[in-house]
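Hi R.,

Quick one: here's the Endoplasmic reticulum transmembrane protein sequence you asked about.
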Amino acid sequence: MSLVWTLIAGFLYAEIALVLLLVLPVASPYRWNRFFKSKFLAMLAQQAHIYFFLIMGVLVLFLLEAIREMRKYSNYEQTGEVHLNVEMQHSMRLFRAQRNFYISGFAIFLVLVIRRLVTLVSAQANLLAQSEASMKQAQSATAAARSLMEDKKTDKAKEASEDSTLNELNKLREHVQELTSELNREKKDKEAVKSQAESINREYDRLTEEYSKLQKQITIGGKGTTAGSSSKDD
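And here's the predicted structure, written out as tokens:
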């Protein structure tokens, strides 16, 4: 194998190793994304499309060269008796052309695969970061909603307690008004009983005076009759 095809084969083996690293769970998408966004790769990424098209152009050229060699040695026709060494050299060259075709073809294919894998890994890392940010936002929104609900519950509890205290105050006011009305009625009854007692006392005093007057009259009348009877006897 010539030096050029040795380099292309080494490039192919490196591509296979890189594809295995990207496919197997060796590192998380976060680490790959940080690695892709490192300073060195960021400097290379500015001219990545140039490197990509350059590598693809070189590999396509070697692929076309391999195809040309395959067609050249495939169309070889044996004329008469051919020496064994010539036939072996022809078969060896055809084998090399086929080998170079597969090496360059797989190298081109893996370049496309690696580019796609890098894009997918970066997109996955960005999606994971966005999902984490969305989860944090959702959790903060949920916490805020819970705090608002708790505040509403406390406000409702305060309103309910205020309503209950207002109801109790209204009941107490009504009870005070009832007690005040009863007290006024009792005062009126007491005043009526007092006035009634005063009138009874006055009536009693009047009757007592009349009784004393009658008793005096009776006493005076009894004395007069006693004196009259004594005079008649004389």
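The two ends are 200 Å apart (CA to CA).

Cheers,
M.
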